[in-house]
Amino acid sequence: MNTTKNDTAIGVWPTLVYRDGQAALTFLTEGLGFTLVAAHPGAAEGSIAHAELTWPAGGGVMVSSIDRNAEPNEFDQLAGQRQAVYLVHSDPDTVYERVLAAGATLLREMREEDYGSRGFSVTDPEDNVWSIGTYAGER
Protein backbone atom coordinates (compact mmCIF):
# COMPACT_ATOMS: atom_id res chain seq x y z
CA MET A 1 0.00 0.00 0.00
CA ASN A 2 1.30 3.44 -0.88
CA THR A 3 1.45 6.17 1.74
CA THR A 4 2.26 9.86 1.55
CA LYS A 5 4.27 11.93 4.05
CA ASN A 6 1.99 14.10 6.20
CA ASP A 7 3.17 17.63 7.07
CA THR A 8 -0.23 18.78 8.37
CA ALA A 9 -0.90 19.02 12.12
CA ILE A 10 -4.42 17.80 12.83
CA GLY A 11 -6.09 18.18 16.20
CA VAL A 12 -9.34 16.26 15.63
CA TRP A 13 -9.58 12.79 14.08
CA PRO A 14 -13.00 11.27 13.49
CA THR A 15 -12.45 7.53 13.67
CA LEU A 16 -14.44 5.10 11.55
CA VAL A 17 -14.43 1.32 11.81
CA TYR A 18 -15.39 -0.64 8.70
CA ARG A 19 -16.23 -4.27 8.05
CA ASP A 20 -14.09 -4.02 4.88
CA GLY A 21 -11.25 -1.60 5.60
CA GLN A 22 -9.58 -2.01 2.21
CA ALA A 23 -12.78 -1.17 0.36
CA ALA A 24 -13.23 1.84 2.65
CA LEU A 25 -9.75 3.14 1.83
CA THR A 26 -10.48 2.85 -1.88
CA PHE A 27 -13.80 4.66 -1.52
CA LEU A 28 -12.35 7.41 0.66
CA THR A 29 -9.34 8.09 -1.59
CA GLU A 30 -10.73 7.52 -5.08
CA GLY A 31 -14.31 8.56 -4.38
CA LEU A 32 -14.14 11.38 -1.88
CA GLY A 33 -10.59 12.55 -2.51
CA PHE A 34 -8.83 11.89 0.79
CA THR A 35 -5.06 11.32 0.75
CA LEU A 36 -3.81 8.19 2.45
CA VAL A 37 -0.86 9.17 4.66
CA ALA A 38 -0.43 6.01 6.75
CA ALA A 39 -1.76 2.46 6.73
CA HIS A 40 -0.82 -0.42 8.99
CA PRO A 41 -2.09 -3.97 8.47
CA GLY A 42 -4.27 -5.70 11.03
CA ALA A 43 -4.31 -9.25 12.33
CA ALA A 44 -6.55 -10.69 9.60
CA GLU A 45 -5.49 -10.97 5.96
CA GLY A 46 -6.22 -7.63 4.25
CA SER A 47 -7.46 -5.90 7.40
CA ILE A 48 -6.47 -2.37 8.42
CA ALA A 49 -5.19 -1.93 11.97
CA HIS A 50 -4.88 1.82 11.57
CA ALA A 51 -4.99 4.19 8.62
CA GLU A 52 -4.80 7.95 8.49
CA LEU A 53 -6.26 9.99 5.66
CA THR A 54 -6.05 13.76 5.24
CA TRP A 55 -8.65 15.98 3.61
CA PRO A 56 -7.39 18.60 1.10
CA ALA A 57 -9.07 21.49 2.96
CA GLY A 58 -7.56 20.36 6.27
CA GLY A 59 -8.33 17.70 8.83
CA GLY A 60 -8.43 13.98 8.48
CA VAL A 61 -10.01 10.71 9.50
CA MET A 62 -8.70 7.49 10.97
CA VAL A 63 -9.95 4.19 9.60
CA SER A 64 -9.66 0.61 10.74
CA SER A 65 -11.18 -2.78 9.99
CA ILE A 66 -13.37 -4.65 12.41
CA ASP A 67 -11.01 -7.64 12.10
CA ARG A 68 -7.85 -5.67 12.85
CA ASN A 69 -7.32 -7.35 16.23
CA ALA A 70 -7.37 -10.99 17.19
CA GLU A 71 -9.84 -10.10 19.96
CA PRO A 72 -12.77 -7.67 19.53
CA ASN A 73 -12.75 -4.40 21.47
CA GLU A 74 -15.17 -1.55 22.23
CA PHE A 75 -14.49 0.24 18.92
CA ASP A 76 -15.64 -2.74 16.85
CA GLN A 77 -19.24 -1.78 17.66
CA LEU A 78 -18.82 1.30 15.44
CA ALA A 79 -18.82 -0.90 12.33
CA GLY A 80 -22.46 -1.78 12.94
CA GLN A 81 -23.59 1.82 13.48
CA ARG A 82 -24.11 4.66 11.03
CA GLN A 83 -21.36 7.24 11.46
CA ALA A 84 -21.35 10.75 9.95
CA VAL A 85 -18.65 13.20 8.85
CA TYR A 86 -18.97 16.65 7.24
CA LEU A 87 -16.28 17.72 4.76
CA VAL A 88 -15.61 21.29 3.68
CA HIS A 89 -14.87 21.69 -0.02
CA SER A 90 -14.70 24.93 -2.02
CA ASP A 91 -16.19 23.17 -5.06
CA PRO A 92 -18.44 20.26 -4.00
CA ASP A 93 -19.60 19.81 -7.61
CA THR A 94 -16.19 18.33 -8.43
CA VAL A 95 -16.66 15.67 -5.76
CA TYR A 96 -20.30 14.90 -6.59
CA GLU A 97 -19.95 12.77 -9.74
CA ARG A 98 -16.71 11.15 -8.60
CA VAL A 99 -18.13 9.91 -5.29
CA LEU A 100 -21.30 8.55 -6.90
CA ALA A 101 -19.17 6.69 -9.46
CA ALA A 102 -17.20 5.19 -6.54
CA GLY A 103 -20.30 3.52 -5.13
CA ALA A 104 -21.86 6.16 -2.88
CA THR A 105 -25.62 6.35 -2.50
CA LEU A 106 -27.11 9.81 -2.79
CA LEU A 107 -28.79 10.77 0.48
CA ARG A 108 -29.38 14.49 -0.14
CA GLU A 109 -29.16 16.08 -3.58
CA MET A 110 -26.82 19.03 -4.23
CA ARG A 111 -28.52 22.16 -3.00
CA GLU A 112 -28.02 25.70 -1.80
CA GLU A 113 -28.69 26.13 1.91
CA ASP A 114 -30.25 29.24 3.43
CA TYR A 115 -27.12 29.71 5.55
CA GLY A 116 -25.02 30.15 2.41
CA SER A 117 -23.60 26.69 1.86
CA ARG A 118 -23.78 24.55 -1.26
CA GLY A 119 -23.48 20.84 -0.77
CA PHE A 120 -24.86 17.32 -0.75
CA SER A 121 -24.81 14.11 1.31
CA VAL A 122 -24.11 10.51 0.39
CA THR A 123 -23.71 7.23 2.18
CA ASP A 124 -20.68 5.06 1.64
CA PRO A 125 -20.93 1.30 0.91
CA GLU A 126 -21.24 0.59 4.67
CA ASP A 127 -23.98 3.24 5.17
CA ASN A 128 -21.90 5.95 6.83
CA VAL A 129 -23.00 9.48 5.98
CA TRP A 130 -20.63 11.88 4.24
CA SER A 131 -21.82 15.47 3.77
CA ILE A 132 -19.75 17.69 1.50
CA GLY A 133 -20.35 21.42 1.38
CA THR A 134 -18.89 24.88 1.24
CA TYR A 135 -19.86 25.84 4.80
CA ALA A 136 -16.57 26.13 6.71
CA GLY A 137 -17.98 27.05 10.10
CA GLU A 138 -18.28 30.41 11.85
CA ARG A 139 -15.19 32.58 11.77
TrEMBL record:
CDD domains: TioX_like
GO molecular-function term, one example from the UniProt record: dioxygenase activity
Swiss-Prot/TrEMBL keywords: Dioxygenase, Oxidoreductase
PROSITE patterns xref list: VOC (PS51819)
InterPro entries recorded: Glyas_Bleomycin-R_OHBP_Dase, Glyas_Fos-R_dOase_dom, VOC_core
Limits of the VOC domain: 9-135
Matching PANTHER family: BNAUNNG04460D PROTEIN-RELATED (PTHR34109), VOC DOMAIN-CONTAINING PROTEIN (PTHR34109:SF1)
Protein name as annotated: Glyoxalase/bleomycin resistance protein/dioxygenase
Source organism (scientific name): Kribbella flavida (strain DSM 17836 / JCM 10339 / NBRC 14399)
